[in-house]
Amino acid sequence: MLVLPIHPSFWQFCRVPDAAQATLSLLRSQLPPFRALHPSRVMSTSSQAPDWSPQQYLLFQTPRNRPIHDLLTFLTTHRSTSKYSPTRIIDLGCGPGNSTSLLAPRFPNATITGVDSSPAMLATARITLPQVEFVQADAKEYEPPLGTDLVFSNAMFHWLRSRDRIPTVERLVKGLEPGKGVFAMQVPDNFDEPSHRAMRETAAVQGTVWSEYFAGSRSGDGDERPELDPIEPEMAWYDILQPLCRSVETWTTRYVHVLDGHRDIVEWVRGTGLQPFLNRLPPDQSVRDAFLQEYQRRLEAGYPRARDGKVLLGYPRRFLVAYR
């Protein structure tokens, strides 16, 4: 995962029944108006490279957490004759700690380490979960410590290019103890969804104020292109991991999120897949506004409103659990 610290009281709201609404209200109260967010970039003090915004990401925390709950439920109920109880967990791509905060109460006796490449995301995670160790590292190079029996990864591996994605997972699985280690992940699988097609289509429109910023970065033009690579077919994952594992389980769940309107889709993806597109644009507000207006126009064509005016955002996610 896959960012500025949020208010320290944020997680207090997660302990009450109205957690989702309270959290959303708190986060929105701290965010500037929509226009001021357009350069959705937080600069790392070390590299001056664009970093993630945890506030933006956590605006939709409750629906983003659904697949985490589902993956944890699978781990604790499937193929288990006794309670699943890992003792050393790596939360790879932990982001602002939302996945770590769900792992900790589910496995209270485990030592958990959160790992992410984003300094800003880790800053938020350390504030919200001061009792947990968080480490900055690149997933392509990270080596879990000896004794790790669960590598858990929520919405991170889709950020790796295709050439690195399966080899990185293969390396991590090989490092787990046979007969004990488990690798579990979920990633969005939405390359062909209207929300993500519209990003590519908007960037490709010629003769616009943003055209020059996407020149030379069309689909298939190497690492500089802003869109992420599609998730590989299930068979590609299975054929690589099956020789290393007792069992490999994989499935896709299509979530449908009910949103108030198309502007909410924009805000959702601004915390994730749209950010690399926005990062290519200049600080000029008029350019960014024009890009986002055209993007939203395409969303309106791709997502008709329900009878009550709501918009249904389909969001498929791929799950994979490999038992070493």
What does this structure look like?
The protein is 36% helix and 18% strand. The chain has 324 residues and is an alpha/beta fold. It has a domain at 8-189 and 315-323: Rossmann fold. It has a seven-stranded mixed beta sheet with strand order 5-4-3-6-7-9-8, sandwiched between helices. Strand 4, helix 5 (119-128) and strand 5 form a beta-alpha-beta unit. It is globular and about 60 Å long. Mean pLDDT is 84; it is low at 1-49. InterPro entries: Methyltransf_25 (IPR041698), SAM-dependent_MTases_sf (IPR029063), Trans_acon_MeTrfase_C (IPR023149). Keywords: Methyltransferase, Transferase.
Shape: globular
CATH architecture title of one domain: 3-Layer(aba) Sandwich
Helix tally? 11
The average pLDDT value, as a whole number, equals 84
Q: CATH superfamily of one domain, please?
A: Vaccinia Virus protein VP39
Q: N- to C-terminal separation? A: 24 Å
Annotated CATH topology of one domain: Rossmann fold
> Taking strands numbered 1, 2, ... along the chain, how are they ordered across the largest sheet?
5-4-3-6-7-9-8
The helix/strand class is alpha/beta
Identify low-pLDDT runs.
1-49
Helix content: 25-40%
Question: Strand-residue fraction?
Answer: 15-25%
- DSSP summary, beta strand count: 9
Helix and strand succession? HEEHHEHEHEEHEHHEHHHE
Summarize the main sheet.
7 strands, mixed
CATH class of one domain: Alpha Beta
Q: What is the radius of gyration?
A: 20 Å
Which characteristics define this entry?
324 residues, two-stranded antiparallel ribbon, 11 helices, Methyltransferase domain-containing protein
